[in-house]
Specification:
alpha/beta; 39% helix
Amino acid sequence: MFDRPQAGETAILVHVSRQGAADPDELQEFRELATSAGAQVAELVTGVRRNPDPRYFVGRGKAEEIHALVESLGAELVIFDHALSPSQERNLEGLFQCRVLDRSGLILDIFAQRARSFEGKLQVELAQLRHLSTRLVRGWTHLERQKGGIGLRGPGETQLETDRRLLNQRIDQIRRRLKKVDSQRDQVRKARRRADVPTVSLVGYTNAGKSTLFNRLTHAHVYARDQLFATLDPTLRRLKLPEGENIVLADTVGFISKLPHELVAAIKSTLQETVEASLLLHVVDAASHRRAENIAEVEDVLQQIGADKVPRLEIYNKTDLLEKAEPRVDRDELGMVTRVWCSAQTGDGMDLLIDALQERFHQVHVRRHVHLDPTDGRLRALLHEKTHVLQIQDLEDGSCEMEV
């Protein structure tokens, strides 16, 4: 078995279609993923295969073709735009004599580079360890040998078993830490609910312009670049609407096609702001040729995390890249705003979006004095949960007066 290099820069990309020619947009997205990870793309190999080969994923002939390219181009890394089994990854590495990465590993590497917060780093590490745990199974033959030497003979555990045990210990440790962070975030969310401050979460396909829109609305300085997964950690800012209502705007990670399930599970706590939101702003790249497909991918991820029932407002962004597309508002048969066409880059249509948010969250505040008997403990708890309690006066007989 060859020594795995610490880093791979020059990469060969491999994309296999089930039928017909590959979609150019898919190939371009694959290139951007590899570039975002820091790879220098030397060659893109495409092919057609109805069913994956159990040994190499691609056929033997295509594998030999890739091997020849690795040797001629001096590539240090081969990236597949598909999910590889541990045995396929091992077989390909043995044939190519260089490191092989699948789509899940590539996205995990990008996430590891983008994570900045303590929680984000923990979530990415958890996803990486889960991914690595499947690669330990028959991944390295030298790990199957038992430890030998003076004092180590006899029944003992193999190096593979030791690594698996240490891996599981680290996974359990990260889960405990994330559980504590989740508890802290939940307390903040409960405080916002008690103060009656709704949360609006930005969701959408990666590179749709969510962070640019977030910066435009809140005058924040969140990192925004024309690259995939520029934002990973959630960012929250307060936004005051024209009539005085306050909302909290949350910028979250973008979604992508074939997002690994283990990654969705790992970043689920980050996406909890989306699940708990009062409204989702689904940001769509209006200029994209794959607009309909990207919308479907986002809807699929929202269903996976349990946010498909949250009310949403579609934001068709990047109208400045479309011909004859003026900022406008679309409404349903009941007169409710369903879609806003705008450009976060130029600021066109931002007033329409603010008006739409004002329309959604326009509230008539009612102030009341309530008298509760000592036996109304459950009602008192409900008032604390559902309303904004302004004042409480406990009376001598055990009852109380509440101003809500």
